[in-house]
Backbone:
């Protein structure tokens, strides 16, 4: 990562923020009208037996960058109460057309600027001055990615289960919103968003210090039961074209509250840990970043300094969460104060904040804490500081699109110092 092109990397990492903000923007089909109805759902009789999924989604690891171009909804159908809930033929044809265009783009050229005439040049889509050779080293296939994104903007439609006041997600809704992918017609939808918030559910149902997740799982089960009983499109793939979003540490476990959601649904998770059941190719690894006031930190939006203005070899600041960080601290503290100083909390140099240190370092350590993901990964990319990922089982965001090995360093926990 001698020169990390801001346009090529950062534009890709921003895409998920833009698309997810779009997904979270709308109101939608009136499935559940109030939080009280959800909470009363536990008294409902169980929904009619749902069909077994005979063919599941074959997904990219990134719903938002690949979108409808690589999402495959089963052509088979199921019947419920005599109704035909198969995927509409028009939707299948749209997906087939998008897939064909992406395959064509991938075969013709790997360089974005050398496409078939229907694809924008690198200078027009990214910032001026970005070299095609840099795009090819960072993207697995720039032309295929660009065509996929264009097809997503052109075709993708999402239907959103109406938000419930009690469970409406808070943090993921920050930032600017567009309505380009929303449809109020479920027959046109390629995917259905379940906008429940695991964080809000935990606040509502979890008793501190009990470590009892049963109330959370029961709440998720009730939520999905209400949706399934009133929303016939759940049954056209037993929930396989429905997705949830969570950056809470318990997000992966929350889906276990309902067997079809856990087995078939698309889980967009920040805690994308394969050792805890994350499924690359079906689930979505979401990069996370702290938006303290709802917008990107202004320090990360400013032009990054060059290597000559980076006096620090490596930088990390954070809590001693988990064994990895604790081991690194024990190894480096006091080892070589002149070359590698380690400051206790509150004793760092005056006049420099967290982002200032990051922008003045060449490498930014991103060790796992209690969970594998960390906002440091995205912050480091924005600061053009090489991420050093010390983690096991972390499915990196955009791994099907980006060549992470070209601009980051991965260190297995077993071989890390300490």
Residues:
């Amino acid at each position: 990562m001698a020169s990390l092109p801001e346009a090529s990397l950062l534009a890709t990492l921003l895409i998920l923020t833009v698309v997810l903000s779009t997904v979270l923007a709308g109101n939608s089909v009136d499935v559940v009208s109030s939080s009280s109805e959800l909470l009363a759902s536990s008294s409902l009789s169980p929904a009619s037996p749902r069909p077994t999924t005979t063919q599941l989604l074959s997904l990219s690891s990134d719903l938002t960058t690949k979108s409808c171009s690589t999402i495959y909804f089963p052509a088979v159908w199921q019947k419920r109460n005599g109704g035909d809930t198969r995927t509409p033929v028009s939707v299948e044809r749209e997906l087939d057309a998008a897939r064909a265009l992406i395959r064509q783009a991938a075969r013709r050229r790997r360089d974005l600027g050398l496409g078939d005439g229907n694809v924008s040049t690198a200078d027009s889509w990214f910032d001026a001055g970005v070299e095609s050779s840099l795009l090819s080293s960072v993207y697995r296939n720039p032309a295929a990615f660009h065509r996929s994104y264009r097809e997503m903007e052109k075709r993708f439609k999402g239907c959103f289960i109406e938000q419930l006041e009690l469970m409406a997600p808070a943090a993921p809704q920050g930032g600017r919103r567009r309505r380009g992918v929303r449809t109020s017609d479920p027959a046109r939808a390629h995917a259905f968003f379940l906008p429940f918030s695991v964080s809000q559910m935990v606040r509502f149902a979890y008793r501190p210090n009990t470590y009892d997740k049963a109330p959370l799982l029961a709440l998720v089960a009730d939520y999905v039961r209400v949706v399934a009983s009133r929303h016939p499109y759940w049954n056209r793939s037993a929930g396989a074209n429905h997705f949830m979003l969570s950056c809470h540490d318990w997000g992966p476990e929350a889906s276990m509250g309902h067997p079809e959601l856990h087995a078939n649904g698309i889980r967009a998770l920040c805690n994308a840990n394969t050792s805890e059941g994350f499924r690359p190719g079906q689930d979505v690894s979401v990069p996370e970043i702290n938006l303290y006031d709802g917008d990107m930190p202004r320090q990360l939006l400013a032009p990054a300094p060059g290597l000559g203005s980076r006096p620090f070899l490596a930088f990390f600041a954070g809590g001693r969460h988990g064994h990895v960080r604790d081991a690194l601290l024990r190894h480096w503290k006091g080892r070589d104060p002149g070359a590698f100083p380690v400051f206790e909390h509150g004793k760092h140099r005056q006049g420099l904040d967290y982002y200032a240190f990051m922008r003045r370092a060449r490498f930014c350590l991103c060790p796992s804490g209690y969970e594998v993901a960390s906002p440091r990964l995205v912050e480091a990319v924005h600061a053009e500081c090489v991420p050093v990922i010390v983690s096991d089982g972390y499915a990196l965001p955009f791994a099907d699109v980006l060549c992470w090995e070209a601009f980051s360093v991965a260190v297995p926990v077993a071989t890390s110092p300490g």
